[in-house]
Prior knowledge:
Blueprint lengths: L11 H13 L3 H8 E9 L2 E4 H16 L4 E10 L2 E9 L5 E12 L2 E8 L10
Parallel strand pairs: 1-6
Antiparallel strand pairs: 1-2, 3-4, 4-5, 5-6
Amino acid sequence: MINTSVDQRRTTAAVIGDHLAKRQVGELEQDIQDNYADDVVLLGAFGDRMGHAGVRETAAQLRHDLGDGVTFAFHTVVVRDDYAYLEWSASDREGRQLTAGVDSFAVRDGRIAFQSVHYSPPEARGWV
């Protein structure tokens, strides 16, 4: 079932922009509601996840790997048709940084239908 409260004619750039803005301020649930297809597929080193529950699980894994109080920066966003590519980094309150996060997206009908997630988890929080 598709949430019809969001305009399905939104461009890929608009969907990804809204997704990043919501994640930057910690609005996970609103991001899921507004930007993810009910049957979204997520792939990464964590395996495969499906649906809104999969988005929540993936976000929880990222929080587990990076800890609380992490700030994200989005560096490169490339959009072409239904596809987007994102390079991101994260830093914690102590100044440790993760510099090699990469996500890819496919957007269909104004929703993220596919997302790949890649980052190297900091070993025991001993960030690079």
